[in-house]
Amino acid sequence: MSSLIKNICCIGAGYVGGPTMAVIADKCPEILVNVVDINEERINLWNSLNLDLLPIYEPGLDNLIKKRRNKNLFFSTKLEDNISKADMIFISVNTPTKKKGVGAGKASDLKWVEACARQVAKYSKGYTIVVEKSTLPVKTAEVIKTILEASQLSPDDKEKKFDVLSNPEFLAEGTAIKDLEYPDRVLIGGENKKAINSLTDIYKNWVPINKILHTNIWSSELAKITANAFLAQRISSINSIGAICEATGADVREVARAIGSDSRIGSKFLDAGPGFGGSCFKKDILNLVYLSNYFGLNEVANFWEGVVLLNKWHQHRITRLIIKKLLGTVTGKKICILGFAFKANTNDTRESASINICKDLLEEGAVLQIHDPKVDPKQIEVNLGKKENKKIKEIKDQNYFQLEGQWSFEKDITISSDGADAIVVLTEWDEYSKINWFAISKKMRKPSWVFDVRSIVSRTKVLEANINLWKIGDGTNN
Ligand code: NAD
Ligand code: UGA
Asked: For ligand 1, atom 10, which residue shows the shortest CA distance?
């Protein structure tokens, strides 16, 4: 299918910009795709010859990069040049929650989006379609339009013309390539039919037309944060029921199976765990809360804020529970943390439940050995706000009291369990479901515990290895 669009520029080479543009480049070899970013280090990593060094770990991404990079897919810091050549520009920059000022703690910080709009206004030439790919508060397209239209007022820029579309991304990390190649739907919001069709033509190269939905621009923006709010709501719902299961003798997996069989509810997104993490769920719900409050819909705001509050409560509940099982104190006790990424198959740690749970345990004086197959220990240092202390590995005879509240990274699970009182499984990496508990048990101090917060280890194997087991949402724990 040939498209009117020949040259795409994507501003933002992050978890969305990188994979999304790799898939577009692969599906549309006749389109030149330039991904630009102000972060030079990130761009260098996207260009690294060793594909293990790509800034994002995402199954299947390395193959696509190998196939398309320097053919019709380019990564660079040359914003001005690539914006001026593009006939379609995707804005795919970060939109975190505002830290200060009006709406702090809830509203999205749009300074990066605004900066992009100004760059586009300045450098673009002729007619350009600007596509919001970032998740943006309802009515942001208006802000972008205002900035772009202001640039048309200058006598030198009379030939500049813009259309703004909303095309939110629904990929989940860890399955991004599959989600992009076989999306449940592609959403395009906009006013100008010709611009909508130009973007539709790109997606039509691999997405069935009945899955490409057209809406007005505000519905598109709102649908994106609503989808995330609904998904996050399911997780808080199942985690709240998990807590009831633990108290009553029910099993949350059985409850999830029973309710998930109802086709109106569905079986996905019902896994109890340590609470949702990731860069978007909390931010997008808080955005919805801000929007509701802004329009005086305080009950609506309270309803959605409850989803975030439950999630926070749930993470602290897990720490309290670990402390209780470890005889009321974790001070000077070694605990192995398995998993720091917010979910499996990604190296992303943003808002990971592991951060809060580890911080709580360190605060209580525990000594942590943290393992994750893909997360860089330097990232853990940033998240915990505390330097790694490698001396933990030299401690003999469980004399961990001298290193209370310290942590270190260990890539060998057996070594990290040496002298440990507990192992806490926080991310559902496949390798954690295949651990040889007999070998681990020999290394641990007794009584030893496994806290399976993802419900992925075999109850029988852990118990046969003479280790106590606590499983999330399992009322038979007691
Ligand atoms: P990210 O932080 O990984 O990447 C954003 C990139 O934009 C960074 O590399 C940053 O340097 C760059 N950037 C910021 N301002 C810039 C500017 N003015 N010019 C050039 N580059 C600039 O963020 P992300 O996870 O890719 O998320 C991007 C957007 O997509 C957010 O709005 C997010 O809510 C949304 N989203 C994310 C996901 C996800 O799974 N991560 C999924 C769907 C939607
Ligand atoms: C989520 C949405 O699933 C995507 O559709 C959306 O595009 C994206 O947010 C976004 O806008 O950023 P993501 O955060 O990458 O994707 O990953 P999810 O699979 O949704 O998981 C989010 C969190 O919920 C993780 O911490 C995960 O472990 C947890 N989760 C998920 C559960 O605890 N139980 C489940 O059953 C599912």
From this structure: 12
Point out the residues that are catalytic: 169, 224, 280
User: Using CA atoms, how far apart are residues 1 and 200, in angstroms rounded to an integer?
Assistant: 11
DSSP secondary structure, 147-183, as one string:
HHHHHHTSGGGTT-EEEEEE------TTSHHHHHHS-
Q: Tell me the domains of the chain and their CATH numbers.
A: 7-215 (3.40.50.720), 217-478 (3.40.50.720)
Q: Report the residue among 56, 89, 93, 224 best suited for mutation to probe ligand 1: largest number of ligand atoms under 8 A from its CB.
A: 93
CA-based R_g, the chain, Å: 24
- Note if the bond before 447 is cis, omega within 30 degrees: yes
User: What ligand has the least distance to the C-alpha of 133?
Assistant: 1
Chain segment 276-307, per-residue pLDDT in tens: 999 999 999 999 999 999 999 999 999 999 99
CA–CA separation, 408 and 340 (whole Å) = 12
- CB of 341 closer than 8 Å to CB of 375: yes
Residue 169: CB within 6 Å of ligand 1? yes
